[in-house]
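Exercise 7.
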Amino acid sequence: MAGKVVIGIDPHKASWTAAAVDSSQRVLAVVRVEVNGDGYRQLRRFARRFPRAVWAIEGAGGLGAPLVTRLAADDVQAVDVPAKLAARVRLLSTGHNRKTDQADAVSVAVAALTAQGLRSVETDQTTAALRALTEHREDLVRTPHSDR
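Solution. The predicted structure, written as tokens, is:
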């Protein structure tokens, strides 16, 4: 992936941490956002600085699935980085296994830059629709109502 930028994502239930890393494995920028509509918009604004970036998501079928669904709806492709691969990269690059969200996001990006054969993420449309409905319901439940 010479000359490319990868946006590595460390997903959690409540937050997404993204790190943009260039082909020299230099960290260009990092952002952490909440897992909701506003957080997704912030993440997309962050990514606009790197218009040709490749997205790499740790555990795209698990905690990364909500982000995968949103990206797919916007026709943004991503690759799935297995958690074990990202952990191995973190250990090899730092010499220790200390975990932070930023270090994890950088490790995901570096893994995507250096690994062979990572699979592109594809979303099942039924699962995506159900997940979108569930997220919308959760957003509605969290929104304070003025009539209460």
